[in-house]
Amino acid sequence: MALYQAAGHIWAMTERGTASLHRDQASLRIGPSGLTWSGGELVLDFKETALPWPGQRIVPKAFSGQIRLTPEVTHDREIVLDPEGRHLWWPVVPQARAALECDLLPDGGWQGEGYHDQNFGTQPLEKDFSRWDWARGRAPDDTTLIVYDALSRSGAQTTLGFAFSPYAGIESFDPPPNTALPRGLWGVSGGVHCEEGYQPKRLKKLEDTPFYTRSLVETKLQGQTLNMMHESLDCRRLANPLVRLMLPFRMPRQIFR
């Protein structure tokens, strides 16, 4: 769970043992938190612990709440990300309305845009990929645009562009060239697709780690200027032994519950 606010970010990413996993056709529960499809909505109930972080909190803090995702557009199939077909991406709900309630937020929560996807594969990402960029945003014409770049360790490049609309359905498109964004504090590079003659901007930095960055960026696609949630992942950095030693500080592990 990652919640961003002016008063300080809330971050919880706890690894748990197999005894904490419970799932069936309509639900997934890991420890005290879980996802359920109910009445056409995806409902996430969470009860986690926010980690200490400099300038935000000096001790762990429990928090809980619920997210309700009401789909406006759904997608019914996975998309292959690598030539060998070992890694799949599924934008399950590319466009939705979201309602969040959380006891640590100043106003108790908010309502706005929502999105739900998932990635899965038969072996770790760093074994097959060098890096990737991903971005998703809602354009002024109410179309959700998603672009994906994945560079495999073999040098093969996968570039995807999709437009999801509640009126026109789903269409693929060829994205314009990828334009570099400023490197993160840790040196992670990344870029976002942008039409010629327009310079993309990083509006807000949300995560900046030794192997991953998440930002809100402004760019131009299909003739429309839009804000996109953007992610860059450096899988070579992720595989670095020093980075591996740092992971437990952000991803504590609870084996028995």
UniProtKB/TrEMBL annotation:
Domain of life: Bacteria
SUPFAM superfamilies xrefs: AttH-like (SSF159245)
Protein name: Hydroxyneurosporene synthase
Source organism of the structure: Roseibium denhamense
